[in-house]
Design brief:
Layout lengths: L10 H7 L10 H50 L8 H13 L4 E10 L2 E4 L6 H12 L2 H8 L3 E4 L15 E9 L2 E10 L8 H76 L4 H26 L8 E3 L1 H18 L2 E7 L6 E3 L1 H19 L3 E10 L3 E8 L6 H8 L13 H12 L3 E6 L5 E8 L17
Parallel strand pairs: 7-9
Antiparallel strand pairs: 1-2, 1-5, 3-4, 4-5, 6-8, 9-10, 10-12, 11-12
Helix pairs in contact: 2-6, 3-6, 6-7, 6-8, 7-8, 8-9, 9-11
Length: about 475
């Protein structure tokens, strides 16, 4: 209501208004009556203004309180994604609840393994009795359905005689995951039941549901961590099986690779016994023995299981040479020529030699499979933009269909003939991607394939390490 006031009341005007038509001087009783009427109206207007001012003050105070409550809820909601322990979530909730109602104690009870268990380190025996009683009497189930807190005097519980604390009330607030109850937040207060407003209880309920979300998020993360660990264990086991399968596939070619130097050794032993070119024969025997030792060592390294996480400085070029030596027997048996064009000054990288050798073997064995018989494989290395070590493997085999390449890159896509997928190639692509690398397939139109593998060069790999190069052969 808006009231307008005149700064100065014109008394003469009041007098003139109430003059009788023929009277020169107004009657005094009329003047007094009019004056009292004006004063009464002024008092009413003043009272109305006071009421309006009071209402505005209440509105401002309510807005301030609402803003403070909103900020508390927003602050509490930040704990949802903080991966806090359950006891830390309880501490946060108790602290914010203290701003709503002075509490004596509080606790969060979660339903696990068919019973309610407190999550704080200050688990009260009284609370345990109260929660179990509320559960048995169906109070908690009712709260889950109502989705609203309830205030219960301690004296109302059947286990009242067993409680250490005899005075006060408890507020029981349901903790919900959508419509499913996961537990309760219980608060002990001295405040009378009748003193609680609906606003207070609703505010406590909002705070409790924020804590419930944090608990749910914590459980989800724990589940994800468990599944990731399980997945990691399965991947490690699979890699071991894949490596052993590769060793088995290499066995036939390695037998051939070892047989050749053994024949040379046996021939030179015969020459040495006859006394012909003794020094030369011993040198040849030593060289071929080293060759055999390198082959066997490379095979043993492939089968070893105690270097899964071992990180070392290694160079790609020696790794390629030693890996090719492992399969040279298979290539020669199929009349496949292997050509190497390895650029000098390739930076050393930090990683696991067995890991990289497995990648190379899978790509080379796949190239051999595409050729089948009588062809060639070309392997080149270079540095690109000082950021990548680029390894190219080109073969003269059957071009890979685009559907096959798509399946290799995304093994979970639904494509026909997925049973024909080379699992080793798929795993190698994923292994390269796991270290931040890239793999590109370029099938040629008529004959052959080219696979481009990019391995990132880390800042720590910018120096060419000569004394720490690891030989896998």
């Amino acid at each position: 209501m808006q009231v307008e006031f005149q700064d100065n009341l014109d008394i003469e005007e009041i007098f003139d208004t109430f003059k009788e038509p023929d009277a020169k001087v107004p009657r005094i009783d009329v003047i007094i009556e009019n004056y009292l009427s004006v004063v009464s109206q002024l008092k009413k207007d003043l009272s109305t203004l006071k009421d309006d001012l009071t209402q505005h003050r209440k509105s401002d105070t309510g807005f301030t309180d609402s803003l403070a409550e909103y900020l508390r809820v927003q602050s509490l909601s930040s704990i949802i994604t903080q991966h806090l322990e359950l006891s830390e979530i309880w501490e946060k909730l108790e602290g914010f609840s203290q701003t709503v109602v002075p509490l004596l104690r509080s606790e969060i009870f979660l339903w696990e393994d068919d019973k309610y268990e407190g999550i704080s380190q200050k688990n009260s025996p009284d609370f345990k009795l109260i929660v179990n009683c509320a559960h048995e009497e169906g109070i908690i189930k009712w709260l889950y359905e109502q989705k609203h807190p309830v205030v219960v005097p301690l004296s109302d519980f059947m286990i009242y005689d067993k409680l250490r604390k005899k005075k006060g009330n408890v507020i029981i607030i349901p903790l919900l995951d959508n419509d499913q109850g996961i537990g309760v937040f219980i608060v002990l207060v001295e405040k009378n039941k009748s003193s609680f407003s609906i606003r207070d209880l609703e505010y406590l309920n909002v705070l409790a549901q924020q804590a419930a979300l944090a608990i749910i998020f914590k459980r989800m993360n724990n589940g994800i961590d468990t599944k990731q660990k399980l997945l990691g264990q399965m991947q490690t086991r699979f890699m071991k099986l894949l490596r052993l399968a590769t060793v088995g596939e290499l066995a036939g070619g390695i037998a051939h690779e070892i047989n050749n130097p053994l024949q040379i050794i046996m021939g030179n032993v015969q020459m040495a016994r006859m006394g012909h070119k003794l020094e030369e024969s011993l040198g040849i025997i030593e060289k071929q023995s080293v060759r055999i030792a390198n082959i066997v060592r490379g095979l043993l390294n492939m089968a070893r299981q105690d270097q899964e996480s071992f990180s070392e400085f290694l160079e790609i070029n020696p790794l390629i040479v030693n890996t090719v030596n492992l399969i040279r027997g298979q290539m020669e048996k199929r009349e496949i020529q292997v050509e190497l064009d390895l650029k000098n000054k390739i930076p050393a990288i930090q990683g696991n030699s067995i890991y990289f050798q497995q990648i190379l073997l899978n790509f080379l064995l796949h190239a051999k499979m595409q050729i089948n018989h009588n062809g060639s494989i070309a392997i080149t290395t270079r540095v690109e933009d000082d950021e990548w070590i680029v390894l190219e493997i080109s073969d003269s085999g059957v071009p890979m269909p685009s559907e096959y390449i798509e399946k290799v890159i995304d093994p979970f896509s639904e494509l026909e003939n997925s049973q024909e997928l080379n699992l080793g190639l798929t795993v190698s692509v994923q292994m390269v991607q796991e270290i931040g690398g890239e793999v590109e397939f370029q099938p040629q139109k008529k004959t052959g394939n080219r696979i481009i593998i990019k391995i990132p060069i880390g800042s720590f790999d910018s120096k060419h390490i000569q004394d720490e190069v690891v030989s896998t052969g």
